[in-house]
Amino acid sequence: MEEPGRVFSAMRLRGGRYERRGFPLESLPELARYERLVLDVAKALWKQGHPERQRVPRGFAEQLQLRLTKVDGGSVVPVLERGAPPGPSPLIDGVSGIFEQARDLIEDTFAAITAGLEMPASLPLEALAGFVRFGSTLRNDERIEFRAGTDSPILYSQQVRRRLLARSAVERFQIEGLMGGRVTSVDADARTFVVTTFDGRKVPGTYVDETVHDDLLAVLNSQAKAPVVRLDGILTVNAADEVHGIDDVRSVELFELPERAWGKRLLELAHLGPGWLEGGGEPVAFSALDAAREVLQLLDDAAVDSPAITPTEDGGVHLEWSDPSKVVSAEFSADLDISLHRYDASGSELLDSDDVTMTDAVGWLMSALRVNA
Amino acid sequence: MTDPDVGWPALTEGEVQLETDSDELLWRQVHPEFAPDGVLTSRGFRPGQHDDGCLSTVRSSVLTAAAAQAHHEAVGLKTAGTWAVTPAESAQAGTRAVDDSTSPGLPTSAPPGHTYLDFRPLSKKGVKDASVALLLAAVARGRQHP
User: Fold this and answer.
1) Which residues from A are below 8 Å from B135, CB to CB?
2) For chain B, what are the domain ranges?
3) Of A158, A280, A308, the CB nearest to B41
């Protein structure tokens, strides 16, 4: 029989979704981020104590093993326990107690930010990225209480998180994410490249994977004029979300666009990261961007005015043409479902069955916008 | 037009439906992504996934447009500006305007005079129609702040 673990964190989630019964599944990533934060801080602390070492010992992360074992009532109280690591526990120098030390340092940092005090001197700067990630899904009426049930509980909210971001504005963090831009050079020997962002900044990048190398070269050699890519990797960003570098690129998606105002707008959408809508909002899928691009190009050829282009919360694209008496819109979801809507003095129409094709969409839009094909 | 038979959820403690014969304006803050280059879209008047069919607005009898926007920004939310509709326009669009500013369930970060436009009983098409009708009313009035 498996041994029970030790309760690791006294955390309580309050407000908003957490005032209802049960644990909202969409909040589970927040617990994973908490574990990652503890791990990042613990790693940084270990490296502070072992300046001669570049990496933590093998098996370090397996020593943490946080598990959600139950959810207590009274707001939502996820009980996180530290389980025994699988297999024989390796002897790792300096690991004993380091996760508890990291947990306490995290809570001290949250307490300092909340109280408007300086962050603890022992906080490793390289762990700040984990703090930035944690709590990103909290809504404005929700908070996470640490040291719950003690005389000095700590309330972490989006407001506190923003204070943390503002304080760390001068710092740069590494986070996993997406960026869009144009690849302007590739150095195959050094496995580096330069991507130019939509606002004209040149950002250095690195990659390891051979397939990424081939993809980058293919983009560079593409016949398309200034093809745009979306890269998935480890971003070095500041608190204003400006990307200063991208490393360990895992994938390269090509996105070809004409030099039109609507092309620039689609690029802006390609650049939106997760949480663009006040903590919610999915990154816009390239599939949806591609569909919108195709339709916009056809309508452009037919001299149709450009629409307003917005992202949708679930990673789609919404095109909208409006005048004082009529509004016509088309939405393309990440799964390439198409929804067409017209509203004017004569009534309204919604076309969004599963079998609406791109051809249907263009024909319908031409008709709704009164364009002679 | 608001349909009395549409099957509105019962109002809860602290909620009051606004009369449609008032001239009061209901301020609506619109996220910048939903008003690209300042062009308001119907997305700015459509409840999001986490709004449970209730679109937040603020009563002009309680806060000015500037104060409503300042509150919105003070709690860390983004806005492209303040637009407005009346309770009558809300009803015309097929929604109802409900003041829930004294509701015990309202988050403490909500602005004074918080009101919501109730989309809950509407079909998918009804939601789109309503958001467009609200958009047209708001655009006709023009941005109210800044």
Assistant:
1) 322, 327
2) 17-141
3) A308
Contacts of A312 (CB under 8 A, 6+ apart): A318, A331, A333, B43
Residue A310 has its nearest CB partner, among B41, B76, B128, at: B41
What ipTM did this prediction achieve? 0.93
CATH topology of domain A174-254: OB fold (Dihydrolipoamide Acetyltransferase, E2P) (2.40.50)
Q: Which of B42, B77, B129 sits opposite A140 (nearest CB)?
A: B77
**Chain B residues with beta carbon closer than 8 angstroms to that of A265:** 36
Structure tokens at B30: 């619109």
CA atoms within 13 A on the CB side of A289: 26
Render pLDDT for A230-282 as a digit per residue (tens, 0 to 9): 888 888 877 556 788 998 898 888 877 777 889 889 988 987 877 888 878 88
Do the strands A243-255 and A202-207 form a parallel or antiparallel pair, or are they unpaired? parallel
Q: What is the pLDDT confidence band of residue B118, given thresholds at 50, 70 and 90?
A: very high
Consecutive H or E run containing A10: strand A6-14
CATH 2.40.50.140 domain residues, chain A: 174-254
Residue of A nearest to B42 (CA): A320
Chain B residues within an 8 Å CB radius of A314: 49
Chain A residues with beta carbon closer than 8 angstroms to that of B108: 141
Side by side, the strands of the sheet bearing A326-332 are A308-311, A317-323, A326-332, A338-344, A347-351
Rounded distance, CA A276 to CA A311, Å?
10
Q: Are strands A317-323 and A338-344 parallel, antiparallel or unpaired?
A: unpaired
Query: What is the distance in angstroms between the Cα of B18 and the nearest Cα belonging to chain A?
Result: 25
Cβ–Cβ < 8 Å for A12, A76: yes
Q: Which of B36, B42, B76 sits opposite A265 (nearest CB)?
A: B36
Residues A44 and A101: their CA atoms lie apart, in Å, by 11
Tens of pLDDT, residue by residue over A112-133, are: 888 878 778 787 766 776 777 7
Min Cα separation B64/chain A (Å): 22
Candidates A311, A322, A329; nearest CB to B33:
A311
CA atoms within 13 A on the CB side of A15: 17
Which residues on chain B are in Cβ contact (under 8 Å) with A325?
136
- Please give the radius of gyration of chain A, using alpha carbons only, rounded to the nearest integer: 25
In the block, which residue shows the tokens 């190398």? A213
Enumerate the residues of chain A whose CB falls inside 8 A of the CB of residue B31.
Answer: 277-278
Name the stretches of chain A with pLDDT < 50: 1-2, 88-91, 373
Nearest-angstrom CA–CA distance, A9 and A322:
52
CB contact under 8 A, A277 and B31: yes
Asked whether B40 and B138 are in contact (CB, 8 A), the reply is yes
Identify the CA nearest to B31 among candidates B45, B14, B20. Answer: B45
* Closest residue in B to A322 (Cα–Cα): B41
User: How far apart are the C-alpha atoms of A309 and A319, rounded to whole Å?
Assistant: 5
